[in-house]
Amino acid sequence: MEGGKFKVEREMINGVQIHDLKQIVLPKGDLWHACKSTDEGFVGFGEVYFTQINKGEVKGWKRHNRYQLNLVVLQGKVRFVIYDGRTDSKTYGDLAEITLSPKDYYKRLTVPAGVWMAFQGIDDGVNMLMDLIPEPHDSSEADNKELDEISFAW
Amino acid sequence: MEGGKFKVEREMINGVQIHDLKQIVLPKGDLWHACKSTDEGFVGFGEVYFTQINKGEVKGWKRHNRYQLNLVVLQGKVRFVIYDGRTDSKTYGDLAEITLSPKDYYKRLTVPAGVWMAFQGIDDGVNMLMDLIPEPHDSSEADNKELDEISFAW
User: Fold this and answer.
1) Of A5, A12, A126, A146, which is most buried with the most CB atoms under 10 A?
2) Which residues are CB-contacts of A146 (< 8 A; sequence separation ≥ 6)?
3) Domain that holds residue A29
4) Is residue A1 part of a domain?
5) Burial class (CB in 10 A: 0-12, 13-18, 19+), A7
6) Number of domains in chain A
7) Dihedral sign, CA of B48, A138, B100, B3?
8) CB pairs under 8 A between A and B
9) Chain A residues touching chain B at CB-CB below 8 Å
10) pLDDT per position as a tens digit, B118-150
């Protein structure tokens, strides 16, 4: 049973970054930025895919051992919780959470390799995020834990 | 006033490709593939962004002169119409259309540089697509035409 002290979003886990993204309002339909190759936090393109998370459900915990993730929520609202289990990290043992939504907090979340993450659907409708990873998906690079193995009050 | 003969989707414009994509049904929320670096049609990563198109509205015509586009519709339904104005193309003068939707036709559409494209929102709600381009966006690489400059019965 791991756990840790909770930190508010702007005192994030070491290496976790929150980047501003533009939503450009246009008469025929808006244009939303997501990620450029020149952006901070981008480390290469291997795959982009979409994940949905139903209201109240949590996917995780998962730790990517090679991938730095870039995450953008496109629909609904998604709560991300990150736990730093890297013993050599200056934020070792810390937990942090951030909730993203295109309606009121449209940001790109960069999550470094080596930390644990879980995420929860918040809205009644579809909660969907884009995940951009630096290699085509390879399930062998990730580790999983049961939800109750890292203590967090979901 | 340009125009051309109409072709059904599977006799597409030269270089236009429609790729199957998986939608993996999962109990807590589905996972939808979009694009991998190893996929046919992928030619490099410069930027990924999202475009919405309101019902009945049309964005276009636009011709990208350097970018090959990879397009995935995530929400609603979007109709794409492509006109081949490349005088050295074996499909010169042809028009083709394809309608994508995550509900009943979830595919990745690859559009080569040099053709004209316009797209229309079909559903009442949000119609949103992902566009993956091989360079960070540069408006100087594209040309635009008014909608009535290429004849199509929208």
Assistant:
1) A12
2) A61
3) 6-34+41-148
4) no
5) middle
6) 1
7) positive
8) 102
9) 28-38, 45-54, 57-59, 74-75, 121, 127-128, 130, 132, 135-137
10) 999 999 999 999 999 999 999 999 999 999 999
Q: B95 CA to chain A: closest CA distance, Å?
A: 23
User: Residue B124 is which amino acid?
Assistant: D
Token pair for A29? 């339909």
Q: Is the separation of the CB atoms in B131 and B71 below 8 Å?
A: yes
CB distance B29–A35 less than 8 Å? no
Determine whether the interchain pair B121/A29 forms a contact, defined as Cβ–Cβ distance below 8 Å.
yes
Terminal CA-CA length for chain A: 15
Distance CA B113, CA B67 (A): 5
Query: Quick check: bond before A61 cis, omega within 30?
Result: yes
Q: What region does B91 belong to: left with phi over 0, alpha with psi -120 to 50, or beta? A: alpha
Q: Is the ipTM of this complex over 0.85?
A: yes
Alpha carbons A89 and A95: distance in angstroms, whole number: 13
What is the reported pLDDT for B12? 80
- Give how far A49 is from chain B: nearest CA, Å: 5
pLDDT at B10 over 90: no
Question: Is residue A121 domain-resident?
Answer: yes
Flag whether B88 is in a domain: yes
A81: domain CATH number is 2.60.120.10
In a domain, B154, yes or no: no
> Which residues have CB under 8 Å from B114's CB, separation 6+?
B63, B64, B65, B85, B86, B89
Q: Which of B31, B36, B136 sits opposite A38 (nearest CB)?
A: B136
Task: Look at the pTM and tell me if it is higher than 0.90.
Answer: yes
Q: How far apart are CA B23 and CA B58, in angstroms?
A: 27
Question: What's the mean pLDDT in A126-141?
Answer: 96
Task: Supply the pLDDT for residue A1.
Answer: 41
**Mean pLDDT calculated for residue range A46-73:** 98
